[in-house]
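Per your request, structure below.
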């Protein structure tokens, strides 16, 4: 049986390189696995992931601005578009599991996967979880961490 896995997240090398390591290990264990990446349009993952030999789809998602202002209206609009796009990606690819590695690009995809009852796994490689992973953790089937006592 062919396994289909989506890995989502990015924005920085701290998210992208662990995601690629996960993909390489999956391929090592199951060479027939189909792996699709989902990231943020215009971010580093849109170049690094294809260079590593994996397909990627970009979402127009952006991070919230710390200051209240007009820019956050644009961010919310892009979030809504990203949620609908994530739903289409899940429907067309039909993954067995969705893995989030952090960064705001993983938010819409894992949220929609949860709504569609697709198992999600969060991999947190930092000593302190970012806001996206903290919000998504409540619904994740599994959470993998790099440091002890991160379950708090």
């Amino acid at each position: 049986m062919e396994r289909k896995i989506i890995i989502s997240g990015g924005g920085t090398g701290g998210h992208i390189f662990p995601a690629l390591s996960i993909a390489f290990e999956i391929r090592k264990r199951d060479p027939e696995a189909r792996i699709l990446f989902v990231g943020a349009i215009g971010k580093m993952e849109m170049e690094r992931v294809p260079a590593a030999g994996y397909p990627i789809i970009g979402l127009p998602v952006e991070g919230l601005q710390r200051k209240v202002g007009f820019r956050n209206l644009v961010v919310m609009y892009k979030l809504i578009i990203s949620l609908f796009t994530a739903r289409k990606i899940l429907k067309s690819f039909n993954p067995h599991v969705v893995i989030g590695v952090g960064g705001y690009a993983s938010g819409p995809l894992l949220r929609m996967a949860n709504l569609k009852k697709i198992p999600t796994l969060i991999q947190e490689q930092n000593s302190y979880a970012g806001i996206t992973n903290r919000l998504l953790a409540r619904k994740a089937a599994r959470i993998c961490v790099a440091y002890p006592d991160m379950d708090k």
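The two ends are 37 Å apart (CA to CA).

Regards,
D.
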